């Protein structure tokens, strides 16, 4: 799975929780969930749960603590999927 494909799969998981639509339109690896998209901490947990369901993976607490931006999310997903 390429980075572009991964971002494409992540976008619909993130979108319902985004408070800054303009930042979401420019979503990239460097996008921070809290600072850029204005996702609150409770919704960040929802995104993580949605990622687990979408990719059929189990995220540990330390994975969740590191998943603060799109790049970190992509790296963790790639490790869990072995890609």
**CATH superfamily membership, which one?**
ACP-like
In the CATH scheme, the class would be Mainly Alpha
Provide the low-confidence segments as ranges: none
CATH architecture: Orthogonal Bundle
The helix/strand order is HHHHH
Mean pLDDT: 94
How far apart, in Å, are the first and last alpha carbons?
A: 7 Å
CATH fold node name: Non-ribosomal Peptide Synthetase Peptidyl Carrier Protein, Chain A
Number of helices: 5
Please compute the radius of gyration using only Cα atoms.
12 Å
- What percent of residues adopt helix (DSSP H or I)? 55-70%
Strand fraction equals: under 5%
Question: What is the SS-derived class?
Answer: mainly alpha
Could you give the count of β-strands?
A: 0
Largest sheet: none
Overall form: globular
Tally of discrete structural domains: 1
Give your account of this protein's structure.
- This protein is mainly alpha-helical.
- The chain has a single domain (3-81), classed as ACP-like (Non-ribosomal Peptide Synthetase Peptidyl Carrier Protein, Chain A).
- Helix content is 60%, strand content 0%.
- The protein has 5 helices and no strands.
- α1 (3-14) packs across α3 (41-55).
In short:
With 83 residues, the protein is an all-alpha fold.
């Amino acid at each position: 799975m390429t980075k572009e494909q991964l971002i494409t799969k992540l976008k619909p998981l993130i979108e319902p929780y985004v408070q800054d639509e303009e930042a979401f339109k420019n979503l990239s690896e460097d996008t921070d969930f809290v600072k850029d998209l204005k996702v609150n901490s409770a919704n960040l947990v929802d995104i993580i749960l949605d990622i687990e369901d979408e990719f059929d993976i189990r995220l540990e607490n330390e994975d969740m603590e590191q998943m603060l931006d799109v790049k970190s999310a992509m790296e963790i997903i790639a490790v869990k999927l072995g890609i």
